[in-house]
Amino acid sequence: MSHSRVALPRDAIIDNLHADPALCVCALVCRSWVPASRFHRFEEISLSQKSAR
User: Fold this and answer.
1) CA distance 38 to 16
2) 3-state SS of the chain?
3) pTM for the whole structure
């Protein structure tokens, strides 16, 4: 029995998950998925100022 590797369409998978909680899991698949996962995960960042009392 022969085993062959299949190339996954990484960008298509991550792009379709960009609003899904499963996007965080994509970064755990392999190191090459981390940059694209982070791009979508941190696409929008909100900062707020708390009063210093």
Assistant:
1) 14
2) CCCCCCCCCHHHHHHHCCCCCCHHHHCCCCHHHHHHHHHHHCCCCCCCCCCCC
3) 0.57
Rounded to 10 degrees, the C-alpha dihedral 17/30/28/19 comes to: -10
Per-residue pLDDT of the chain (53 residues; tens, 9 = 90+): 667 777 767 778 888 887 778 888 888 888 888 888 888 888 887 888 876 55
Please say whether the beta carbons of 23 and 34 come within 8 A: no
Look up residue 4 and give its amino acid: S
